[in-house]
Structure formats: C-alpha cells, structure tokens
Amino acid sequence: MLPDQTAIAAAVRGTRWHQVSVVPSTGSTNADLADGVRAGDEPGRVLIADVQTAGRGRHLRPWSAPAGTQLSISVTVGVPAAAAPRAGWLSLVTGVAAVAAVREVTGVRAGLKWPNDVLLEAEPGKRGGKTAGILSELATGPDGALVAVIGTGLNTTLAAADVPVETATSLQLAGADDPDRTALAIAYLRHLDAGLTAWTDDPAAARAEYLAACVTVGQAVTVSLPVDEVLRGTAVDVDVEGRIVVEDETGSRHVLSAGDVTHLRPA
User: pTM for this one?
Assistant: First the structure.
C-alpha cells in the first residue's frame, strides 16, 4: 500500500509543505523536483515514490529498493540569501529530522553517523546498521532564487536478502513491528519543518540538536581521504560549518567537509 497522500497533506497543513504528491514509481524524486524548480515551481513541494528506478546517493551511488520497502521522499526548500553560506547544514538538519521520526514512530534507537547516515541500534538478535541516506542538491529557479532539493531514502521493511551491503539494515530488521510509512512521512516532515526554521533563525540551536543526535563525535574513527590517504584519530566536534573535527594521535586537529571524505567509520 502506498503512503496515504491525503493523510500526509492534512497532517502537515500549516507547515512550509504546501503540496504533497505520492506516486507509484519515478526515476528519481530529487531529479523530478529539481526539474520543477527550474520550471518555476515554488519551494515547499514534497514528492514520495514507492519505487525509484534511478535513485542516487552521495558520490552518485545508486540507491534503490523493492516496492513497498522504503520511504523515498524528496522536498524543496527555499534558501534565503542570508542562510546560503550555511547551506551545507541542510542535509545535517535533515538527518536530525529522520532520526527524530524513527524514534517517535517506531521506538527504535537511532543516531547519526556524520554527516547524515541514519544508524539503528538493533534489539538483541536483530540487525543494526544504516537505514537511511540523504542527498541534498541545489537548483536555481527562473528568477535566480536558490532552492535546495533534499532526498531521503529510509529503509522500512527491506528484507535481509535485499540490503545492498552488510552494513545496511531496515527498521523491520532492527526490530520495528510493521513500520508505517505514512506515519513516518508525517513525523519526518513535521520535524524537518521545525529543524529548517531553527537552521534559518537559530543556527546554534540547530547545531546543538545535531550534536545531540550524532553518534560519531567522541568515537575513534578511521577516515578515508582522496588519493588513498587515511586519517586515524578521534572525532571531537562538528563545527559551525558542519565539518567534522578529528584529532589525531599527535593532538593535531583536522577539519574535514563531506567533500573531503570518501568514507568514515569507527576505528
């Protein structure tokens, strides 16, 4: 069963989300909304697809799942000129909203691996790991206005045989009993609306919420960098620009953006 478009639209009435569409299939929800931005669509659109045939993650990695097993949802967000220098925070704020929705709807313990991978802490005998990825892109409208297109793919009932890598999981595999995609979409959109307001009005509060959800800070990590370089140390902070701060064994601190990092994992 598809997520309930009518119920979602009614539940988010009064937020920035003025148009909600649910479709059985599309190539990429992000690509569809980006095309709409360039054609003049106003920000505040939500597009949910049961199946994406050309979904993408970071570094153009394919992101797909069988029908009915994932919440694939993209939104468009206007980027005010004053907030443009902080646009890198958009995907981090989105990760916080995804974690909050998972906790609220399913009760599964969730956190963020920097920058925005949603990780689940499984019940005994269940499967933890990454259950969601987030891709934030920028598009420009005909009037020159900057709009972010943010896509989230949240594995809900993906079976063990269908997970793309060993480190991936789904809400059901982690112990959630029949996760409701309609309820998850509603909670996610409400939390994202609030998080985006903090992003523009109170960046310090948005950063504090991120740090509270981030499980990377405080961990010993191994960071794969371009040109086959490896950095080992402890993640000690996420700075005001959303960059991870890693302190190596000599005490030197390295500040890395998502674009600098090929892979980050616990040491």
Answer: 0.93
